[in-house]
């Protein structure tokens, strides 16, 4: 016998799924720079940049929530690339949650290829997830994230290292963005970063007093 699931029931199930993903991130011990607010920014920015397309919201939301799980204390494995680890964690979680098996490969592809040093994934969802994650490292929000990591990240132990990372991001990351909407925003956020660095340079005797 075939069962028809109402639109209301589908929406209720999806909202429950979304809430479960949010709770996974909130309970993971994630640093705020990579935690739930970062995930929400990436998700909403991806939707904004792709407003001319019809992305699968279930795929995009799940990928946005799970893309950094490999960094989180309860999931991270030393010396394992966090994107690859995130893919494994996401696969296990989605299977446990009985998520649509036909959509899991799309989510895993987006998660695995979200980093700036990776080629974009195969789907539009993967492309815009990667664009948004890159852009969250630029501009005012990127600067806030960098300085929140001072002393918490092995590569950013001092304010000077945060400044240097900001300079590197401003130089390198805009070229990693591939879509028209992403490129436009990358230019604006790069300018925000450079204005900040120029001001800090003036106010700290060319970074000597930072």
UniProtKB/TrEMBL annotation:
Protein name from the UniProt record: Putative hydrolase
Keyword Hydrolase set for record: yes
Keywords for this protein: Hydrolase
Source species of the chain: Desulfosporosinus acididurans
Annotated ranges, domain HD/PDEase: 31-147
Highest taxon listed in the record's lineage: Bacteria
InterPro entries, A to Z: HD/PDEase_dom (IPR003607), HD_domain (IPR006674)
Molecular-function annotations in GO: hydrolase activity
